[in-house]
Specification:
single chain; alpha/beta; 6-stranded parallel β-sheet; 3-stranded antiparallel β-sheet; 18 helices; elongated
Length: about 400
């Protein structure tokens, strides 16, 4: 079902000039809820996300996800004629939102800065994503999520105590930035429409600041107590809390974060006496003696398979979960029941399974209407049918490499 008229963002138009992960993720989130998202890609290879990750039959799997629910057109923004055509695109579509994730100053060099574009669309909300923001000493630096994960404090506290700082194996900083940007865009639209202000504004979204914000308590603790957090593996301010290896070589994660749960852990492993042990009678004591406690819990877990350990602990209402890989997730009945994984029919790859739409709304949920399109798949629909360019003009633009 490709129609979006029943979705909550139906009637919102988005021009998506985002590159790689963060920018395209914003467009994906908006498209999931019915916005018309026109993705503008360089004619020479398209968005760089098409070259990331694995491919099947020459088709980018990343692009199938991050460009879902979008239309793809090609346009060379480095070219003067392409920049003029972009302004005509803005005039024809009157977008509510424009997403760009070029290095700061790039859009201005192309004479496509916010001030000029707002002359065309006074209500425009322009989302500007970059590594370090539109101003500040680092604004000119190339920005990738890896750098944000390193500089935010995240990598410093991630990993084993005697190991190196650890980076995530996926685009964590990009994803967090995309969420903040999407919320910001909705705030801007509310300010523009519900408040009757009528004018748009731009969002300055860096990759660094959103992930830094999530680590905010560390700053407060440093400011007030002079504390600098360090890597401590899975240790935290409560115990028992760790990952434990099972007899069959798998793992579980357990969190005894409250006194009542800790007591249930002790009872479930057949050691109710531990709550009377002065080393473990309250959380402060348990954290101070965490290695001894982990040895006890770990020994119990090691005697059981993952399935056995989970069954016993769940029955005792312990906060526990198996550590799953993607094979487990892909076959999990709970995720299936909640449509956390959806199947999409695609002209290039057949059926594709991908994560479903979040957040989950009770009355007007979003949906995946189609996977990411081919590069330039909607050139005719936008340039000819929407903007009124003739076939001869389109052919000329193609031959010049403008589209």
């Amino acid at each position: 079902m490709n129609d979006s008229s029943d979705l909550p963002l139906s009637g919102i138009t988005v021009i998506d000039c985002g590159q790689v992960i963060a920018g395209p993720s914003i467009g994906m989130l908006l498209g999931d809820f019915g916005a018309e998202v026109i993705k503008v890609e360089n004619p020479k290879g398209g968005d760089q996300i098409r070259n990331f990750g694995y491919q099947k039959n020459g088709v980018s799997l990343h692009s199938k996800l991050f460009s879902r629910n979008k239309k793809s057109i090609t346009l060379n923004l480095h070219d003067g004629e392409g920049q003029g055509l972009f302004c005509r695109l803005m005039q024809a579509t009157r977008p509510d939102i424009l997403i760009e994730s070029f290095r700061p100053g790039t859009m201005e060099r192309w004479n496509l800065g916010f001030d000029r574009l707002r002359e065309i669309c006074p209500g425009l909300v322009m989302i500007r994503v970059s590594g370090f923001g539109q101003f500040g000493p680092y604004r000119e630096r190339p920005g990738f999520g890896t750098l944000a994960e390193a500089m935010s404090g995240f990598a410093h506290v991630t990993g084993e105590e005697d190991g190196p700082p650890t980076l995530p194996p996926f685009a964590l900083a990009d994803g967090i930035a995309a969420l903040y940007a999407t919320v910001g865009a909705m705030i801007c639209l509310y300010q523009r429409d519900a408040k009757g202000r009528g004018r748009g504004q731009y969002l300055d979204v860096s990759l660094l600041e959103p992930i830094f914000n999530l680590l905010g308590p560390y700053l407060v603790e440093y400011d007030q107590l002079g504390m600098v957090p360090k890597r401590q593996g899975n240790r935290t301010s409560s115990a028992p809390r760790n990952t434990y290896r099972t007899r069959d070589g798998r793992w579980i994660a357990l969190a005894g974060s409250t006194q009542s749960v800790a007591i249930r852990v002790f009872e479930a492993i057949g050691r109710p006496d531990l709550i009377l042990d002065p080393r473990f009678h309250d959380n402060r004591s348990r954290v101070a003696n965490v290695e001894a406690l982990d040895a006890i819990v770990g020994a119990w877990v090691a005697e059981r398979t993952q399935e056995e350990a989970i069954r016993v602990l769940v029955a005792a209402e312990v906060a526990v979960a198996p550590i799953w890989d993607i094979r487990d997730l892909a076959s999990d009945p709970h995720l299936a029941a909640r449509e956390s994984i959806v199947a999409v029919e695609d002209a290039e790859l057949g059926q594709i399974r991908m994560p479903g739409v979040l957040p989950r709304l009770s009355e007007t949920p979003g949906r995946v209407r189609h996977a990411g399109p081919r590069l330039g798949e909607h050139n005719q629909a936008i340039y000819r049918d929407r903007m009124g360019l003739s076939d001869e003009e389109i052919s000329s633009l193609l031959s010049q490499g403008v589209i």
